[in-house]
Design a protein that fits this description.
By secondary structure, the protein is α+β, with helices and mostly antiparallel strands. It folds into two domains: 96 residues, Rossmann fold (3-Layer(aba) Sandwich); 35 residues, no CATH class. Helices cover 35% and strands 22% of the residues. It is built from five helices and four strands. A four-stranded antiparallel beta sheet has the order 2-1-3-4, with helices on one face. The longest helix is centred in the C-terminal third of the chain and has 13 residues. The N terminus is likely disordered.
Length: 152
């Protein structure tokens, strides 16, 4: 019987990049014109490392985020998040992966109007059926600190 050393697994995980992009390409067809957004893009981001996307409107920032999150598939190339090749996943599995491993803060308000503020905040945990009483208490405390407890 073989036993795994969890410390070895932790060390391996720390050595692997959090995000690895290999030969990523994406383009869009607009009427008769083909717009190449990325071609042969390579990038590695280590755990704890931060990157910033800068560029003018239409330069591909949102497209990049949609690709890395698995919302849109690339034309070609590979995207690994914590060693998982999300480009090899079905659309359903990409959605499940995103639900469990990726969070977005949108530029514009994307709250669901029929939900309360607390329900909007807890929705990601509700979707994976992992919301706890402690989570509800944490949200209530946060809304109280932000003077929004009346909207709970």
């Amino acid at each position: 019987m073989a036993f795994r050393n969890l410390h070895d697994d932790d060390a391996r995980m720390m050595a692997e990049p959090a995000l690895s992009i290999q030969q990523l390409s994406k383009s869009y067809q607009e009427s008769e014109l083909r717009h190449e957004i990325f071609s042969g893009l390579n990038l590695q981001v280590s755990r704890g490392e931060f990157i910033v996307l800068l560029g003018r409107s239409g330069s591909g920032k949102s497209t990049f985020l949609n690709l890395v999150s698995g919302i849109d598939p690339p034309d070609s190339g590979k995207i690994f998040i914590n060693c998982t090749d999300i480009t090899g996943l079905s659309e359903h599995d990409r959605t499940r992966f995103r639900r469990h491993h990726i969070g977005f803060v949108f530029q514009s308000n994307n709250l669901i109007p029929i939900l309360t503020v607390a329900e909007n905040l807890l929705l990601p945990l509700e979707l994976i059926k992992r919301v706890t009483r402690a989570d509800r208490d944490k949200v209530a405390g946060l809304l109280d600190k932000l003077l929004l407890s009346g909207r709970i």
